Amino acid sequence: MRWLVTGAGGLLGTDLVALLREEGETVVAPTRSELDVRDAGAVAAAVRDAAPDVVVNCAGWTAVDDAETREEEALAVNGHAVGDLAAACRERLVQLSTDYVFDGRAAEPYPEDAEPAPVSAYGRTKLAGERAALAHGGTVVRTAWLYGVGGPNFVRTMTRLAAGDGAVRVVADQVGQPTWTADLAAQLFRLVTAGAPPGVYHATSSGSTSWYGLAREVFELAGADPDRVTPVTTAEFPRPAPRPASSVLGHGGWTAAGISPIRDWRAALRAAWPYLSEA
User: Fold this and answer.
1) For residue 217, how many C-alpha atoms fall within 13 Å in the half-sphere facing its CB?
2) What residues have CB less than 8 Å from 216, skipping those under 6 apart?
3) Which 3 state secondary structure label does DSSP give 168?
4) Residue 144, Cβ density class (10 Å: 0-12 exposed, 13-18 middle, ≥19 buried)
5) 3-class DSSP state for residue 164?
6) In the annotation, is 275 catalytic?
7) Through-space distance between the first and last CA atoms of the chain, rounded to whole angstroms
8) Which one of 105, 161, 217, 234 counts the least CB within 10 Å of its CB?
9) DSSP states of 208-276 as a string?
């Protein structure tokens, strides 16, 4: 199978391209500097030249706080560019999205068919990309709280802080699902190779925790005292973009497609740890 992976140099793209090559797949993997997804002509040419069986769009504006004051710029990447890519595809398009399309007020995990209600500019722009992909028969894969070796992320930050001294203040009233990019890459591979139908899927680790709970887990793995992690509220740690208080995603779409959801977040973090601690 031939794959085109856009945004191949990012946190997820790095692991996805590595996995596909290990599996013997043919991969065309342009990085952001090699393919500006905002350039519709360049996107159409990339799809034509690669002649892929499947396109996975890992490119995106991920600066959540910056999007609050630069929404049109974020929309150009997360929304309009997805529409151009979807229009250029005669193949299957898999578009990555986010838990930020929800408002975070639900008491239960959001099912795939829950009505989106983003409360941030970032969430609105990602929802625009979802709609563009689905309008062209594509597949949307929502994920959240990503960590891995391919770029900066919360787990790597906590690993660095664990090596220091003193208390570390971490938000305890936002709940979600830490997800290892290697696990997400494997789930995307299963999704495509199993021939799962187009639609919306939630590709996050099973279980849930807060940023505070995740930080404590990282400190323990690093051999540091987890009691150095001090819980704070979102109100005590204000950011420009509002965060979903509870963005736990349900995984019913995988069951319907006959594919197992991603494993528990603690098991994934322990499996990832040897790679993260060496990075």
Assistant:
1) 20
2) 226, 229
3) strand
4) buried
5) coil
6) no
7) 31
8) 105
9) -EEHHHHHHHHHHHTTS-GGGEEEE-GGGS--SS---SB--B--HHHHHHT-PPEEEHHHHHHHHHHHH
> In this predicted structure, what is the pLDDT of residue 79?
98
CA nearest neighbour of 84 among 48, 137, 131, 44: 44
pLDDT digits (tens, 9 = 90+) for 175-226: 999 999 999 999 999 999 999 999 999 999 999 999 999 999 999 999 999 9
Among residues 122, 147, 201, 212, the one annotated as catalytic is 122
Strand ranges of the sheet holding 2-6, from the earlier edge strand across to the other edge: 26-28, 2-6, 54-57, 92-98, 139-143, 200-202
3-state secondary structure 62-126: CCHHHHCCCHHHHHHHHHHHHHHHHHHCCCEEEEEEEHHHCCCCCCCCECCCCCCCCCCHHHHHH
pLDDT tens for residues 90-117?
Answer: 779 999 999 999 999 999 999 999 999 9
Q: Compute the distance between CA of residue 182 and CA of residue 193 in angstroms, rounded to an integer.
A: 17
**What are the DSSP calls for 5-43, one per residue?**
EETTTSHHHHHHHHHHHHTT-EEE---TTT--TT-HHHH
